[in-house]
Design brief:
By secondary structure, the protein is mostly beta strands. The protein has one helix and 13 strands. The strands form three sheets. A six-stranded antiparallel β-sheet has the order 1-9-8-11-6-13. The chain is globular and about 55 Å long.
Length: 152
């Protein structure tokens, strides 16, 4: 089983370090400034979601997020305003960076699946873009965001 499958730039995925594996279990490590490109200001876990129930469905103006599937399978769709990309996270040894101005929605495969989210900013309702048309107009007009072609 692979840790992730993707069709987007490799700089958005970060393998976390398997620091120790032995009779007492595994220790997987990620550090801010190394594997994690920011110091988290907010941490939350999405869990006990009915399988197939869509979560997310928004983008952030400034906040970046780093997603780690702790258990189960998480299927995400990321949209940068130009194209949509499907991502599957299956193991906690890899994280996915979601930059600002990227629309994300996801499903979990079972009620026991868990998605850990590390956010670069504290909660701010004004940072959320919940209307897809508004997101598209902001994403497509962002002069700092060059168009990329995502091919493997």
């Amino acid at each position: 089983m692979t840790a992730f499958r993707h069709n987007f730039p490799s700089e958005w995925t970060t393998p976390l370090k398997l620091h120790h594996q032995g009779a007492r279990g595994q220790l997987i490590v990620g550090e801010a400034g190394r594997e994690l490109p920011f110091v988290p200001q907010r941490i939350f876990i999405v869990q006990q979601v009915t399988p197939g129930q869509v979560r997310g469905g928004h983008a952030h103006r400034q906040c970046s997020q780093f997603l780690i599937c702790l258990s189960g399978v998480c299927r995400l769709t990321m949209d940068d305003g130009h194209e949509s990309l499907d991502v599957t996270l299956e193991q906690p040894c890899c994280g996915l960076l979601i930059p600002p101005l990227h629309w994300v929605q996801f499903t979990l495969d079972s009620t026991s699946a868990q998605l850990l989210v590390l956010a670069s900013h504290s909660y701010d309702s004004d940072d959320y873009i919940s209307d897809y048309c508004q997101f598209q107009s902001l994403a497509l007009c962002d002069p700092c965001k060059p168009y990329r072609s995502y091919e493997c």
